[in-house]
Specification:
This protein has 235 residues and is mainly beta. Helix content is 6%, strand content 31%. The protein has 1 helix and 12 strands. The chain has one helix at 2-16, and strands at residues 33-37, 40-47, 62-70, 76-83, 87-93, 96-97, 102-105, 151-153, 159-161, 185-191, 202-209, 213-220. The strands form 3 sheets. Strands 1, 2, 3, 5, 7 and 10 form a 6-stranded mixed beta sheet that branches. Strands 6-4-11-12 form a 4-stranded antiparallel beta sheet, with no helix packed on it. A two-stranded antiparallel ribbon has the order 8-9. The chain is globular, with a radius of gyration of 34 Å.
Length: 235
């Protein structure tokens, strides 16, 4: 009996030798896909969960949630995001990746799902009345928009004309263009989905960078923001 017990002990020791511990094979507890190309690291890439229907339908738009980091010493740039299951993504915001920095793609539920295109009615025009200044006639005391010239008479009886006075419009020199996007923030929205995409399924998406090149990942749909409803306890 002692010999048998010793043999079993040696067999058990041999079976456990060289095994990988459970902690060595654990992965990060994130829902998205991750990968690296060159010095660029793409982390936790996923599609925003569509709250309206719970899945993406034919023709829907799908925002991408991702963090992209440049771990190298040279600047790079995100050029495009494409997929065989959709049209090319619309990218707005900061696409530049300076050395040692990262950009974060945020998403809005308003961009998830289908959006019907509405055609606005043409703006109405107002015709000028016959008595407007466009008739070419002026009445005493009326102005035509040209600079005003003031004439005064000096003590010697000579008429002196003052220089024209104009009113500056401070807003005329201000550009109406939108403010630049906040550095480090970008929005990526895949357009016009082909077919349906439901939770549990993935879609292959390619991120193309100016220097690092392309990287293709299988992106899942992210978790629902709705709280989980547990079944009532029987106790």
């Amino acid at each position: 009996m002692a010999a048998v017990a010793a043999g079993l002990g040696l067999a058990a020791a041999g079976c456990s030798a060289g095994q990988v511990t459970q902690t060595d094979t654990q992965v990060a507890a994130v829902n998205g896909a991750s990968g690296t190309v060159g010095a660029i690291a793409v982390r936790d890439a996923q599609l925003l969960f569509p709250v309206e229907h719970g899945y993406y339908e034919e023709g829907d738009s799908a925002p991408v949630v991702v963090v992209i980091a440049n771990n190298g010493g040279d600047a790079d740039k995100l050029l495009s995001v494409t997929s065989e299951r959709s049209a090319e993504a619309e990218i707005t915001g900061d696409q530049d990746l300076e050395a040692g920095t990262a950009i974060s793609a945020e998403a809005d539920q308003d961009d998830a799902g289908s959006h019907k295109t509405t055609t606005s009615s043409p703006a109405s025009t107002t015709s000028a009345s016959p008595t407007s200044a466009a008739s070419g006639t002026t009445t005493p005391g009326s102005t035509t928009g040209s600079p005003t010239t003031t004439t005064t008479t000096s003590a010697s009886g000579t008429s002196v004309s003052a220089p024209p006075t104009t009113t500056a419009n401070p807003s005329a020199s201000v550009s109406a263009s939108a403010k630049p996007s906040e550095p480090g923030k970008v929005k990526i929205v895949l357009k016009d989905f082909k077919g349906e995409l439901r939770p549990g399924q993935t879609v292959r998406v390619t991120f193309l960078f100016e220097k690092a090149g392309p990287i293709t990942l299988d992106l899942p749909i992210g978790a629902t923001p709705e709280p989980r409803k547990d079944a009532p306890s029987e106790h």
